[in-house]
Every structure is written in structure tokens, then in C-alpha cells.
Amino acid sequence: MEHSKSPKVSLGLPVYNGENFLSDAIQSILDQDFGDFELVITDNASTDRTADICLEFAQRDRRIRYVRNVRNLGAGANFNRAFQLSTGEYFKWCAHDDRLGSGFLTDCVRALDANARHVIAYPRLLGIDETGQLTSYVERVLPDMGGSTPASRFRLMVAAHGWDAAMFGLWRRASLAKTTLHEPYYGSDCALLAEMALLGTFVHAPNAILYSRDHPTRSVRLPSSERLAWQNPDGSTANAFELSRRLKHLVAIAYRHRRTAPLGMTLLHLVAWILDPLLIARLFLELVGAVSPQLRAKLRGAGLGALKRIHAGSNRSPA
């Protein structure tokens, strides 16, 4: 009897109504010069041509597995489902609107194979526009984590407020399986990266290229109410409590891994992080929003207006 061998790499592509850029994303995966992979597509009950596009590719390439959810689970749960259905030693989340350079997997696999302490190999991230043309955007590179402690790596990733190159890099499956995965709030990926930093180091694979597409409908451009519905379509409200939930999640992560990094040290880093005046203001607005969403909206608008005036004044040339 033949036993199917798990692939070296699993790629999970969670998608909802992604017909605009999906074909380009899938083709860039199939064009990799590293072939030992599976592509697991988890469709969050799309209502556009997403299913047709995925099924067409799946018929052409046996490495593609298309799974359609009965209902929209929310973005975080769909990301988790892509991982849970995968089997590879290494795992990568893919965005339906991004594109990979042809050597992405080869370079990231090489980086993880070289050192068991590495839990994420992350690429060079370049921006592209709706048409696929390069923009001026180049994401910054992480400081070298060699010789760093789990607590110091945790502090670095908490302060970073996320990192797309790492989020969409190549992850060591055994380490990712020890985490809380994505929670159902916008910004949960920031906490997940901080949790992975407790478990090992991130390594830069500079020859691996990720092309990150900017367009009006990407999640980072959605207003907060729509972002909440994107994460939790069954329970959206006017107040997302995004920062409050991330702080609670980070505290739970610190406690969960207290044997890896002393709890007092990780909690001290969290206190230092949250005492930033802008973060305190965000927490205050979330508290106000629990009582009066209208007042929260007014205060937020006034605050944004003040910040724009300050920014405009700092950029004004001296007379």
C-alpha cells in the first residue's frame, strides 16, 4: 500500500471575494522553482468568481486543494483553517492580492533548514500597485535576532505593531502549532508574531521577494466598523476594541509561555509599550465608545484633525 508523503511546504491561501487578483497570486505560486509544496485554498463562502477561479487551477494542478466554507467564518478563523488543513514541515500564509518572486520558497526553505532556532524566514517586501507595477514602497528589515533573548524578541515584535514580510514569510510548522493562532479581532496577527518571537528567531531571506499589492479594498484601508465585520461577520458592532483585545491577547501569550520568558519581564515590556501616549489615547477612545459610540467618533475626528494640523505645520517650509 502506498502512503502519501507530506510535502516539505504547505501554502495556505485564505480568500473571500478575491476574483480581482486571485489568478495572479495563484500563478505566482505555481511558478515557484521549488516544487515540493501543497496549496490549500480556504474560500470563506465567496459570492463572486473566486470558486470558479480556484476550481479551474485545481483541475490543472494536483498540488492545489480547494476547500469552500459553508459560511463566512471571519478572516482570522479562515486563516487558522488554512493552517489546520495543511501538512507540510513549513507553512506560509498567502494573500490573494500579493505575488511571489519565483525563488521565494527556495530561499526561505534554505534559511529555515540552516538553523533549527529560526521559526520564520521572511522575504524582502516590495510594493506593487493595482496593475502589478512596482511602487516606491520597500518594507524595513528587522534587526538581527541572533543572540537575542525570547523576552527581547517579544518586546521588538510588540513595538513593531506587525510586520507583513514576517507575517507572509515561511513559518516552522512545529512552532506555529504551539501558538494561539489568530484570534477574531483586527490586529491579532501582531500578537501572533510576538508569540512566535518567544519561540525562536526570525531570519531574513533577502533573495526571496514578496510583492505586496496596494489597492482601495485591501483590509488595512477599511474603516474600523468594516474591519470588525471582516474579522467577525456574525457579531460586528460600532466599537471594535481592537487595541484592548490585542493587549488582553498579549497578556495571555506572556502567561502561556512564562517558562520560555519570565512573566515579570514580558509584562514589564507590555506596560512600557502601552504607556505610549497615542496608545493610551486609543484605549481611552475604546472606553468612551463602550458608553457612547457617537462621542467616540467625535473625539476621534477631532484628534485626527489635530494630528493633521500638527503634521502639516511640521512639514511647512520656514519663511
From TrEMBL:
Residues 11-135 form the Glycosyltransferase 2-like domain. CDD domains: Glyco_tranf_GTA_type. The keyword tRNA processing does not apply. One of its GO terms (molecular function) is hexosyltransferase activity. InterPro entries: Glyco_trans_2-like, Nucleotide-diphossugar_trans. The keyword Protein transport does not apply. It comes from the Bacteria. Pfam families: Glycos_transf_2. This is Glycosyl transferase family 2. The lineage of its organism: Bacteria, Pseudomonadati, Pseudomonadota, Alphaproteobacteria, Hyphomicrobiales.
